[in-house]
Amino acid sequence: MTIQEIEDQIIEEFSNFEEWLDKYAYLIELGKECPIIDEKHKTEDNLIKGCQSRVWLSCEYRDGKLYFKADSDAVITKGIISLLIRAMDGQPPKEIAAADLRFIDEIGLKEHLSPTRSNGLTSMVKQMKMYALAYQIKEQ
């Protein structure tokens, strides 16, 4: 599936909830399914800067695609990073680097987060795209 197709699925899933409390509960559930980073990768290098909570993100390049794993000490944040991983995991670096991730705005995520969590979301996206750009350069 493409990033856009996955985004469409996410938008559809969130459209089933009218209240933001239900969407937060769903985010928490998604966080429980997050592909957990191995303890040995919970290093300072994998810690995303700019997040209110601690978020570790690792990236592996295999067969022309990027695979992400993460963990966080906050359940909502873990749900947010799991959504990002779902959208970008197993995609080519070029596609990740170019993705607009419109689902973030379409489900109203940014506007319903505190300013510090919103900054954290931006930092997570930025880090994933930095990995994509780095591997895209390596491919050339």
How do the strands and helices of this protein lay out in sequence?
Elements: H1 3-15, H2 20-32, E1 55-62, E2 65-72, H3 75-88, H4 93-98, H5 103-106, H6 115-139
Antiparallel strand pairs: 1-2
How would you summarize what this structure contains?
The chain has 140 residues and is mainly alpha-helical. The protein has helices at 3-15, 20-32, 75-88, 93-98, 103-106, 115-139, and strands at 55-62, 65-72. The model has no long low-confidence stretch (mean pLDDT 91).
Primary descriptors:
140 residues, 6 helices, mainly alpha, two-stranded antiparallel ribbon
Overall description:
- With 140 residues, the chain is mainly α.
- It is 54% helix and 11% strand.
- It contains six helices and two strands.
- It has helices at residues 3-15, 20-32, 75-88, 93-98, 103-106, 115-139, and strands at 55-62, 65-72.
- The chain has a two-stranded antiparallel ribbon.
- A hairpin with a 2-residue loop joins strand 1 (55-62) and strand 2 (65-72).
- The two termini are 24 Å apart.
- The mean pLDDT is 91.
Low-confidence stretches: none
Query: What is the tally of beta strands?
Result: 2
Largest sheet: 2 strands, antiparallel
How large is the share of residues in beta strands?
5-15%
Mean pLDDT: 91
Query: SSE order in H/E notation?
Result: HHEEHHHH
Rg estimate, integer Å = 14 Å
Shape assignment: globular
Amino-to-carboxy terminus distance:
24 Å
Number of helices: 6
Q: What is the percent of helical residues?
A: 40-55%
Strand order of the largest sheet: 1-2
